[in-house]
Amino acid sequence: TAGGTPPGEVVGSGGEVHQPVEDGQVLTSAQGIPLADDQNSLRAGERGPTLLEDFAMREKIFHFDHERIPERVVHARGYGAHGTFETTADLSAITRAAIFSKVGRKTEAFVRFSTVAGAKGSFDLARDVRGFAVKLYTTEGNWDIVGNNIPVFFIQDAIKFPDLVHAVKEEPDRAFPQAQSAHDNFWDFVSFTPEAIHMTLWQMSDRAIPRSFRFMEGFGVHTFRFVNAGGESTFVKFHWKPLQGMQSVVWNEAVKINGADPDFHRRDLWDAITTGDFPQWDLAVQVFDEEFAQEFDFDVLDATKLIPEELVPLQVVGRLTLDRVVDNDFAETEQVAFHTGNIPPGVDFSNDPLLHGRNFSYLDTQLSRLGTPNFTQLPINAPRCPVAHFQRDGQMQTAVPTGRVNYEPNGFGGSERGPRADTRAGFQSYAEPIEGLKARVRSETFADHYSQARQFFVSQTPVEQDHIVKAYTFELGKCESPQVRSRMLAHLMNVHDDLAVGVAEGLGMPLPEPATPARQPITDLPPSDALSILKNG
Ligand code: HEM
To answer: Carries keyword Heme (predicted)?
Structure first.
């Protein structure tokens, strides 16, 4: 104000009063300019036109206009929390990852749970797969285990992912259904994609309507590798086991809860953490070598298959505790960027073709979602260990590197020389021998689409089986096309008679001829025999 005198009282046209701030913070513009009135735009006369000169109003509205960023193309609806991962097993014999080098080591963690299909504003208790993405801020960089609450996936090859997601999301003409798999496009796609049948069994089971995020398992899904200091590799699968146990609601409850409280799951997590009832999960691994993997009747590189825990028991290696809610949903949960490609030395990829596609997809999509390659500098994404490289500039660059050198190799000395790659501490890919023809092919070992679906069905209690039958009946009952329903029944006949007959009766349809399997499934065997065949071939 003129002469540096403090601003006096300002009365707005709505009658609100702005007074000098005696204590607390003064409201400023984004440039830090203190503002005397944030509720009345600058006018020529009490009832006159608003002036373009009003930088405070223009800046406020300009920023508001750009508040939204694109929601995630999948897993748009999510909820996050902070926590700690404590290592409980020394795995240095099989991995050189520092996180597993010492029992008792604590690592900061951030987790985002999500649904897959629904938009950001959809409801929590849709029948859907749940995302279970964990960021571990290790001393050797961020390690993301970007998993789901179901151990298998719909497709074997990432090139199908855009089709899968187009089919499961709302239909493009009518823009519904918004958050359900109960529609023609999804089941039409599945009926032509038999590899998806196994995952739909899980999706139609009670696992897809969890009681809360706290009562879910999590799975890394793919086979990964551990690599030790000697360069030796073992295959590994990651599992999160809730110490709270597993619980689901039933469909009837899910429908009512969605209506009464669409935020049921996020409220549950917030309430649990803020009242000190911290949810915990054990991280367990299944570890096996290449020779053992060869014995299975399925391929460990096929993400539509799981490795039965009876064949490769789980070994608990750490515990995750979520003990802090976010300060700000946008800054943390919305801006967090998980990526399957974020792995520390000692962890490596297998040749799962779905995983390789994901390793491209996450970084790529995050550029359009977060708008700049510098999203790694956002507090939620920034590693907690030192970062030193020659990546420079770009939109929203916040780092201020000093000195003359921004390239390597360079001939400078001392600290001027900048960082250098280190063959001892640095990440080295597992040196896997590779041979074969370059071609668009899929291995014959990926061809059995029904055996594990059947094993899952028979592993369920009669009540749970009944829920699966009812879920298929409900979901397929929403399909307008009898051909889609019929094709789905033809697949279900290859899974289990009780399932196919139950769903056909529910739909009031005759049973068609079973679908021709790509490879003869092991469906006629009782589960124990099937397991031994899986193991012994
Ligand atoms: C997001 C899991 C397959 C592309 C996510 C998220 C999870 C997840 C948990 C949410 C991350 C978050 O909370 O921010 C999985 C699992 C898969 C799978 C377990 C299979 C095993 C794929 C495939 C692709 C893909 C095959 C593409 C080829 C994406 C994209 C996002 C996403 C683009 C949005 C990421 C973002 O905007 O930050 N996925 N996904 N996913 N996934 Fe996947």
So the answer is: yes
Crossing angle of helices 451-459 and 482-495, in 10° steps, is 80
pLDDT exceeds 80 at position 533: no
Residues 6+ apart with CB under 8 A from 112: 78, 79, 80, 131, 133, 333, 336, 338
| Secondary structure (3-state) at 39 | coil
Q: Are 114 and 81 in contact (CB under 8 A)?
A: no
Which pair of tokens denotes residue 66? 């750009």
Which DSSP letter does residue 71 get? P
Tell me, using a 6 A CB cutoff, whether residue 362 lines ligand 1. Answer: yes
Q: pLDDT at position 383, please?
A: 98
Burial level of 318, CB count in 10 A (0-12/13-18/19+)?
buried
Which CA distances in Å does 132 have to 135, 146, 350?
Answer: 10, 6, 20
Q: What is this structure's pTM? A: 0.93
Contact predicate 533/522, CB 8 Å: yes
Peptide bond into 409 cis (omega under 30): yes
List Cα–Cα distances, 165 to 45, 147, 311, 337, in angstroms.
55, 17, 33, 19
Alpha-carbon distance 520 to 522, whole Å? 7
Distances (CA, A) of 407 to 229, 376, 391, 397, 410: 30, 20, 9, 18, 7
Taking alpha carbons only, the member of 470, 453, 474 closest to residue 462 is 470
**For the residues of 248-317, what is the DSSP string, one character each?**
B--HHHHHHHHHH-TTHHHHHHHHHHHTT---EEEEEEEEE-HHHHHHSSS-TT-TT----TTTS--EEE
> Rounded to an integer, what distance in angstroms lies between the CA atom of residue 152 and that of residue 148?
9
Alpha helices in 169-250 (DSSP H): 184-191, 197-203
Centre of ligand 1 to C-alpha 457, Å, is 26
R_g of the chain computed on alpha carbons: 27
| ipTM reported for the complex, 2 dp | 0.93
- For ligand 1, pick from 72, 120, 195, 370 the residue to mutate: most ligand atoms within 8 Å of CB: 72
Ligand 1 mutation pick, 72, 74, 217, 239, max ligand atoms within 8 A of CB:
74
